[in-house]
Design brief:
- Helix content is 36%, strand content 20%.
- The protein is an alpha+beta fold.
- It has 2 domains: 49 residues, no CATH class; 55 residues, Ribosomal Protein L9, domain 1.
- The protein has a 3-stranded antiparallel β-sheet, covered by helices on one side.
- The radius of gyration is 18 Å and the shape is globular.
Length: 115
C-alpha cells in the first residue's frame, strides 16, 4: 500500500478533494474510483464524431439515479452542508456533489448506497 503522502499527492494530481480524517484504505479506494472515472471519460472522447451522413438517433430519456444516505444518529445530524434525519433518506444522485459524498462516507455515522 502507498504511504499517506503518496496518496495525498496522487489525489492532488487528480484534483480529488477529500476530508482530512479519511483513512488511508478509504482514500486509496476513492482514488482508484476517480482514476477509473477519468479513464472512462477519456475513452468517451475518442469515439468518432457523427459525420452527418447517418441520421441521428433520438437520445433516450435520462434515467434518474438515486442514492440512499442512512444516518445512524436517531435525532439526525448535520453533514455535507445539510441536515440528515435519523434513518434512511433517498435523494437524487445529482443532488450530491463528489465532495459531499466523500464527507458522508468518511463519517462513521453515515452509510451511502446507490439505489
Amino acid at each position: 500500500m502507498k504511504t499517506r503522502e503518496e496518496l495525498e499527492a496522487r489525489a492532488a494530481e487528480l484534483d480529488y478533494k477529500f476530508p482530512s480524517n479519511i483513512g488511508d484504505e478509504k482514500l486509496a479506494a476513492n482514488i482508484a474510483v476517480r482514476e477509473a472515472e477519468l479513464a472512462n471519460e477519456g475513452e468517451g472522447k475518442t469515439r468518432p464524431e457523427n459525420d452527418g451522413d447517418k441520421p441521428k438517433k433520438a437520445k433516450p430519456a435520462k434515467a434518474k439515479h438515486f442514492v440512499t444516505v442512512t444516518c445512524a444518529v436517531a435525532g439526525g445530524r448535520r453533514r455535507a452542508g445539510r441536515r440528515w434525519d435519523g434513518g434512511a433518506t433517498k435523494v437524487l444522485a445529482d443532488e450530491l456533489t463528489e465532495e459531499m459524498e466523500v464527507e458522508l462516507e468518511a463519517d462513521p455515522m453515515f452509510q451511502v448506497s446507490v439505489g
